[in-house]
Known about the structure:
Elements: H1 13-23, H2 32-43, H3 47-56, H4 63-68, H5 70-78, H6 89-103, H7 111-123, H8 130-152, H9 155-161, H10 163-166, H11 171-180, H12 182-185, H13 190-206, H14 211-227
Amino acid sequence: MARYRSRIPCPEIDDLFVFMWEKHKPSKQSTLFKDCLVELRDQNTSKDFILFFEELLPYFQTLQSIKMYSEFILSKLVSELQMEARFSLDSILSLIAALSEDLKEEFVRLLPRVVNSLLILLNDGGLKNAETIEQIFTSWSKIIENLRFCLARDIQGTLRNTLEMRYYPSDIINEKVSKSLLCVLDLALPIQLEKGIKMILSEVAEQPERAARAGFLHYDMIVRLQRS
């Protein structure tokens, strides 16, 4: 499924995201996902990438079409997240983030699939590659930022959807995931913070070994609640 990857040019991750979000913001007649994918198509002339593009072509012409076929589109994207094709990971991850920008609240239901795919990528060797970790969390942070208003309205759901990422057995992953959620907590009402605190306590009660990795978010929510 990851046919074209080894032949896709690999722009620097920071340059790619600046290009995608600042230079090519979607027009009223377009979407960010379409603009990003078309730009990547113009940059990559390999036979396999052209085939990948053509397979998605009928599904991303309008925002309505993207919403209707969002699960199929995401399935095609996450199927490309494999370490054996690490040279195209930044491109695929940027497209997933662009999809979250277009779908906003409708992307929340897809978040568990993204989390699962990122976990598989980390477990398959991504954790050993600093560049891959940076690419993953550049995309992840943008996704959370895009969804922050939706996620802040349901802190329990947000914690539930990110549970495996939050307790991933790596200090660097734990830190990056926790920090990425701060923009969500910035918007959370006191009642949501209370629910979040209780949920984290429940998670730790079920598995006490989680205590160390739960500390950052738990403390941050307590401080925010006291200040509210």
